[in-house]
Amino acid sequence: MMKANMSADRLQNHFFYTLKPMIPRRLQLFLRRQIAQHKRKKYAHIWPIDPSSGKPPKDWPGWPDGKQFGLVLSHDVDTRKGYHQVLQLADLEEEMGFRSQFNFVPERYANVDVSLLGELKKRGFGIGVHGLKHDGKLFSCKEIFSESAPRINAYLEEWGTRSFTAPSMMRNHEWMHELDMDFCISTFDTDPFEPQSDGAGTIFPYWVQGRSPGHGFLELPYTLVQDFTLFVILGETSIDLWKLKLDWIASNRGMALLNSHPDYMNFGSGPCQDEEYPAAFYRAFLEYIKSHFNERYWHALPSEVWNFWATHVRPKRIPAERAMPCS
Ligand SMILES: [Zn+2]
Question: How many A from CA of 303 to the centre of ligand 1?
Fold first, then answer.
């Protein structure tokens, strides 16, 4: 029954996202809000919490230092406005003792300034490549993807990162093996509001095996609802859903991964525009983590999760990987 529902949603999504470029932005938002309210009721049994996603993977050793859960913060920087707010967000996190990964679109809003990337790295933040143009076409057909892959790889090298994040979480894991990356954020545990809404069904990182032994990448699914969905589409006016989900992830010893956007944060004291929410909400979330879970979480960059996985989980699996036929 759920499969049939998901298929109907896939058709609806296909129809909406095909027409989206022709629909004025305000109407797009209106339609997405209507559809989201309907989905929220329909998928209440698996969103924001999918009870089946809490089981740890085979051979999972637990988090470093015996910590209860993992905490990863990531930001997709989608627009010029977001690009200009990156340092404000970095300051906010640094002031509270957190670090995150900023993912930039190479060919959309600006020539991404390598000195900005350098400054972020120096301050302990991570960097990722977020698609190429963020125009919805990257995964639309194999030809476009394969033409884009060498350019994305060039940015990965130039920016000194092995991390890719997928625009709008549109993805094709099989094609993505063409990218020179070790880890990515391109899916989620459960999120019926995404255009490609079939989630990973886990709150733990997992390996996406390539065609040859040792080739593949680590997928870090986001597990807390994205800010745009929560505040702009669903119209929530508090961080209660973030808290609820975080508590559940912590009790299941999983990975809390929040992917949010400086683009939609209002750092000022004036009223929020239509596609904004107060940056104070994000600050309140970080305060909640600190006050409720003091010392009980392993706060890591995506690159640190990758390193941990590569040294503690992967070695146990290498015999199985070696047994896979090479093609
Ligand atoms: Zn994006």
Answer: 19
CB 261 within 8 A of CB 86: no
The mean pLDDT value of the chain amounts to 92
CA of 225 to the centre of ligand 1 (A): 14
What is the C-alpha to C-alpha distance for residues 34 and 48, in angstroms, rounded to an integer? 18
| pTM greater than 0.90 | yes
pLDDT in tens, 209-267: 998 888 999 999 999 999 999 999 999 999 999 999 999 999 999 999 999 999 999 99
Residue 13 lies in a domain: no
- The total number of structural domains in the chain stands at 1
Give the Cα separation of 7 and 181 in Å (integer).
Answer: 31
Expressed in angstroms and rounded, the spacing between residue 130 Cα and the centre of ligand 1 is 7
Closest CA to 127 of 83, 162, 96: 162
259 Cα: distance to centroid of ligand 1 (angstroms): 10
Q: Ligand 1 centre from 238 Cα, in Å? A: 23
The CATH number covering residue 95 comes to 3.20.20.370
Residue 14 lies in a domain: no
Distance 20 CA to ligand 1 centre (A): 16
Separation of CA 326 and ligand 1 centre (Å): 34
- Domain boundaries, position 243: 70-322
Q: What is the pLDDT of residues 274-283, one digit of tens each?
A: 899 999 999 9
